[in-house]
Give the backbone structure.
Amino acid sequence: MIIITNMNITKDITTNKYATKERRVSDILVSSGTGVIFFGLWSVVKTILQIILSQQSIASFANVEDVALDGTFDATTYVIISAILAFVMLGIDLGLRLYAGLSARADGRGKKKSIAYIIVAFVLIALGVISVVSTIISVSYLEGTIIDKVVTLIVDITALLALVELVISGIRLKRIRRKSGVMPTGG
Amino acid sequence: MQEDFHYYATYAAAYLAGFSHRECLDICYSDQLVDLCSVSFLSDIKAPHSAATTQLQLELMEVRTDVAGLQDITRIWASFHFLPFDLYADPGKCSKSYADKFRLICNTNSDLLVDTVNLAKGKSLQAIGIAMHILADTWAHRYFAGTPSLVINNTNYHFYELVSEDDTFTKFSERKINFRHSTGAGDDLENSIYSNTIFQTSEKSIMNLGHGRAGHLPDYSFIRYKYLPSWGRYREIVKDNPADYMNAFCQMVYAMKFLRGEYEVFEKERYDRDAVEPYVNVIKTILNKRQPLACDDWKAFGESLSGETIEDFDLHKYRDEYLQAGEDEKDDTFLGRFVLAALAQKSMVTGKIYKSGIKLAGVSVDYGEKGFKGIKDYRKLVKENDTLRARSSE
């Protein structure tokens, strides 16, 4: 840390050699947390837009058009239940991303946070890797429109990188704080 | 800095350096005029626009931010208000564009400051006033650059005032500074709520010129604060204005003694604290007093030194003299001498910036080397140099 002054107050200001690093990593954590939130929101917006703009039916979205019905439910009920489940999954995904992103931002701003959000981010990374791999496979098998798949791939990879950055920064910040002995404020 | 320091404090420093009351008035008037000599003012008195030493807010709102416009902005602000510290500084691994802007960051006791003071040696009182303005501003405006640049001049939410817990000014507590964009509301000194320029993502926005992103804080003599400058890579800067302003005052006294002929050489890092010592408590009280403008206090101090009345600054005081003078006589008027000194200063700084490989202040030519080259306004400098050479050979 540079302290450039001409008066006595330099002697009274605590100089912490980790302060610069902590500020840098905190800033990155806040930025990556914001990115994770935005990608989570984007997933929801994208889904809604896909349904509205491509006039895709709820049934096809829930992938139940070709499912053979065994008679337990009628077709409509099956579609509704599946669609609800699909949106619930979407909601859970959004919820996890919001939790990870908001916690990362709070941790970066100095509020005390447990490592729970880092674990959640790890889970999201795992799911993200599966998603990316499946997209790559579908591209390589030329299923569907290539352009759509490539764009989806790019966005998914970027979202994944934001999560990775979040995890790395979160872990680094905790290490720096442990070494410097500076504890974040309660929050 | 503001009128309180540029006008009244400079008067006091000039008096302590040994100038007479009338000379002090000329010096401090020229010092303050640097903050007001805009293209609008020069148009009014039909003087060369190239002598502009500032750009008013209204002018900045309409200024072009294309290459030519940016160069004009940089020429003015880097020459008179944000004198670059090290035109050859090494900012580490970065693009040339970033490095050029980094090298324009202002700081105290630079080689350019020595050049500025030396340029005023043997010249008019107006030249001394301009040099003192620039010297004082290197203390107030340090760590900012006189070119619009987000990556150099931006600040963020990490901005804290260091408020003294008692009158000894040795123990400080931190208070978060909140910025708002409301020029009409003014700064709330008691609650640390200040105005600054709006955040603009555009790198070359006029909002990112100089210390706009830190608001008026560098110009308040009482304030101590810490923040993260954009160029600092997360390193924290602590700015102690009372100490910096005291240094500026002592350095002005020393510089003006040099300009008066008391010293052979102007050296960096020299301050005439002995001359200021009898008054240091009075000055510290003025500097630490929590007020937006300290004109009354500095005026009272200056008048107590000289026993004379310091007239208030009047921008149009010398207007008629200049307008009514013939073409051949204009350079001998008060404003004529100011114009010459401003042209010389701008030419010197712009030349140094250009020679260092930085094109942000535009192209600079040696106007008198082999016949006259360049903007015709600067032909006056060739004439002045010829006159000075003729006088010295006599």
Notes: Residues 22 and 176 of chain A are 6 Å apart (CA to CA).
